[in-house]
Each structure stands twice: as C-alpha cells, then as structure tokens.
Amino acid sequence: MAEVNISLDAELVVEVMVLAGIGSPQDAVEAVVRDYIARGHRTETRTGFTDRKLREAASRPEEPQG
C-alpha cells in the first residue's frame, strides 16, 4: 500500500492518542482515519436504499400539468 507523509498539529495528535488509548502517533491517527472510513461505509449501507429512491424520483421527468 502506498504511504503518505503529512504534518499535523502535535496537540491534535496527542489528543487522538489519549482518546484512542494508543501510544504511537502514527497508529493513533491511522485508527481514527480507518474508523472514519468504516463509519462512512456503515452510513452508506444504512441510507443507500433511501438515497437511491430519492435519486430515482428526482430523475423522473415531471408530468405535464394543466
């Protein structure tokens, strides 16, 4: 897997480490990013059907009125 190096505010990283209970800054930030992605996938799974129905309804042409 490709890796990316980024700079983050040290206080932000320490806060993540404390909240996650992880001793390594790299592992703590990676855990947060993975959790964020997993949460997004769970949300898509829950709401995907509703969103699909809304898109289908929006794409239907309107019926002539009057």
Oligomeric form: single chain
Q: Which structural class should the secondary elements be placed in?
A: mainly alpha
Q: Name the beta content range.
A: under 5%
Number of DSSP strand runs: 0
Enumerate the spans where pLDDT stays under 50 for 5 or more consecutive residues.
none
- Share in helix: 55-70%
Keywords:
66 residues, elongated, 0% strand, single chain, mainly alpha
Question: How would you describe this protein?
Answer:
The chain is an all-alpha fold. The chain contains two helices and no strands.
Give a nutshell description of this structure.
By secondary structure, the protein is mainly alpha-helical.
Topology of this protein?
Elements: H1 10-20, H2 25-59
Helix pairs in contact: 1-2
